[in-house]
Amino acid sequence: MNVNGLIVASYGRHVIVESLDGQRRICHPRGKKNQAVVGDQVSWLASEDEGTIESIHPRKNLFYRQDDIRTKSFAANIDQILIFIAAKPEFSEMQITRALIAAQAQGIQALIALNKKDIQPEFEYALQKLSAYKKMGYRVIELSLKDPYFDLSEFQNLISHQSTLVLGPSGSGKSTLINRLIPSALAATNSISEALQSGKHTTTNTTWYWIEQNQKTALIDSPGFQEFGIHHLETSALAQWMPDLQPYIGLCKFSNCSHVHEPDCNIKTALARGEIDAQRYKIYTQLFEELSQPRQF
Ligand SMILES: Nc1nc2c(ncn2[C@@H]2O[C@H](COP(=O)(O)OP(=O)(O)O)[C@@H](O)[C@H]2O)c(=O)[nH]1
Ligand SMILES: [Mg+2]
Ligand SMILES: [Zn+2]
């Protein structure tokens, strides 16, 4: 008999499925290739202590990255994306811009958390770098997870009743955040995936963590932020997914203006007037160049 479940972890060939009663088990794809990703609702069929994925239910969305040759999924059915960075290691604006553009293109809202407020003056410097992102409408929340008395309630309100995909460089404090938010009882359930991970399946993977007992709030920890390819996006639509450039589109001399080398470009005029941040425009031109390259395959 088929049973419904949620994919809470994925290890390439096999996945962990959580049933409505909270039970978790390893499931294998029906065919040769595993198509299910973390966040997918599936129907599965029990076979001894493991199971087989019979079908994947229709998705609300699928968030992924794509480089020259490969498409890699982060997660499905997510409500928002949390860019999780810190005063140290220093973050790359190019990297966060890639993730923000991909989110914007999919219509998924994004917010930014900056951790390690205790590390000064790096934290203040990082905050200054983020001021352009605040101005274009992204919520930027300051965290200090090392401080055991740091009040997380504002952050908790922002993630409450949502499934949030956490993306950030390694070392920014993602695991620290998850450990702090998960009550011990829930951490035990999650430890099934941890145990699997520490055993023979050592590859980094994507994991779904319930934050509250009522199973309404989830954080999804996913590797891959460092190599965030956006080759799946249309080059001509790039400026449209950048909220600080978007308002200037459509008023250039040429209707198909790339905003890179054409005369009478409204975006370049706005840049000259100081209305567009120079660093952001530079990132735009670099991404435009990258996406304009012929594909390798
Ligand atoms: N100074 C400082 N260190 C922190 C803070 N939050 C986390 N860390 C440390 O940063 C390191 C990396 O954290 P971790 O959660 O493993 O990062 P992840 O790679 O993103 O999962 C650990 O040594 C944490 O103790 C903070 O607010 N301040
Ligand atoms: Mg970690
Ligand atoms: Zn233009």
- The low-confidence parts are none
Fraction of helical residues: 25-40%
Ligand catalogue: guanosine-5'-diphosphate, magnesium ion, zinc ion
Briefly note the structural class of the backbone: alpha/beta
Strand content: 25-35%
What is the architecture of the largest domain at the second tier of CATH? 3-Layer(aba) Sandwich
Radius of gyration: 21 Å
In DSSP terms, counting alpha (H) and pi (I) runs of 4 or more, how many helices? 8
CATH top-level class of the largest domain: Alpha Beta
Q: Distance N terminus to C terminus?
A: 42 Å
Number of strands: 13
Mean pLDDT: 90
Q: Would you list the SSEs in sequence order as H and E?
A: EEEEEEEEHEHHEHEHHEEHH
The CATH homologous superfamily of the largest domain is named P-loop containing nucleotide triphosphate hydrolases
Largest sheet: 5 strands, mixed, barrel
Description:
By secondary structure, the protein is an alpha/beta fold. It folds into three domains: 2-56, Beta Barrel (OB fold (Dihydrolipoamide Acetyltransferase, E2P)), CATH 2.40.50; 62-227, Rossmann fold; 235-292, Orthogonal Bundle (Ribonucleotide Reductase Protein R1, domain 1). It has helices at residues 93-106, 122-129, 131-135, 153-159, 174-181, 184-198, 266-272, 278-292; strands at residues 2-11, 14-19, 24-29, 41-47, 50-56, 62-66, 71-76, 80-86, 109-115, 139-142, 163-167, 206-210, 218-221. The radius of gyration is 21 Å and the shape is globular. The protein binds guanosine-5'-diphosphate, magnesium ion and zinc ion. Residues 252, 257, 259, 262, 265-267 line the site of zinc ion.
